[in-house]
Amino acid sequence: MTTDTASAPAPAPLPLLVLGQGTDLHTERGVECPGDLPAASDPDLVERARAAKAALGDRVFVLGHHYQRDEVIEFADVTGDSFKLAREAAARPDAPYIVFCGVHFMAESADILTSDEQTVILPDLAAGCSMADMAAIAQVEDCWEQLTAAGVAEQTIPVTYMNSAAAIKAFTGRHGGTICTSSNARTALDWAFEQVGGVGLDGTGTGKVLFLPDQHLGRNTAVRELGLSLDDCVVWDPHRPNGGLTREQLENARMILWRGHCSVHGRFSVDAVEAARREIPGVKVIVHPECQYEVVERADEVGSTEKIIQTIAAAPAGTSWVVGTELNLVRRLAQQFPEQRIAFLEKNVCYCSTMNRIDLPHLVWALESLVEGRVVNPIRVDPTVAAEARAALDRMLALPGTTHKD
Ligand code: SF4
Fold first, then answer.
1. What stretch of H or E contains 255?
2. How remote is the CA of residue 172 from the centroid of ligand 1, in Å?
3. Which DSSP helix (H) or strand (E) runs through 264?
């Protein structure tokens, strides 16, 4: 018997999934509810974090996203949403180290907006974002090729949500598009449609927006704020040939929505809104625009995390709220505003598991390493990618009325 190894089929290459640049459906099971958070922090860790931060002084600036755990937020020099935090990082040119307590795409944006002399550190590299991972650059490039072949790319401009990998922001910059946040999405869409002949609600408009990667923010903004119809929106599914759309559907569409969503906000349901209204007399429902269209339609208020915080802070004492956003923030709101009755919208939704990857042990490790002169987990965006992404971010910063609030 002879063995012909030359004719044996080559083993399939194992996919290498770089954070923020791939999709691994298996690991996305990590979005399942992990149950209660771990017990209160080890007092030694709290003391160690304090000592390391004091030793570093002004050399370190710690950013904490609103969805972070309390034990981490305690050590943040500033808290906010992704855009506000990136701007805060850029406003601290004297701090050589920025420790970003958030997720990977946020640290990338901070690296793009800070100087080459500064280093952005993500305490746990596994802190990704399932929404950002739903748009891989190869898929997006393939989509654009299909739009070109269908003859619609020339009339299409990309608008990309902040919650995306740097490579997707760079694609947007290359094709003349802009980044948006959940608070300026309407302004960004107005600007984008102006670039392709206007929104033309009277039937005269033909220009299109390719909205990445959150279909819900794109749909909610286009239909509820711009006046487009649900029929004007189509969903591009990167796992189906031609996105699962016919040429005619692409030609007729005004919003081509990428089939991505937030694994937390996408799970709030209409049933939960109706249950809250039944159970809490006079309740007001406030949700994030990453929620599904049907849920947002049934809410009293919709807005970014910053808007949710401001709305509840400004409400008269004794008001009842159910809130559809990340649970760490909702719990903190309930503690900060005891004069309000604040509840979480959905029993079957829990913390953002990737946000929760940043815990006190990881923060202490990152800070103590810096004290010892070691940089762990630096986030460095490739300079070419960073330059193209920066072009898209700068277009957003030039939008009228864009503030530091997301
Ligand atoms: S809350 Fe949603 S969009 Fe935000 S980091 Fe988690 S998965 Fe991503």
1. strand 255-258
2. 21
3. none
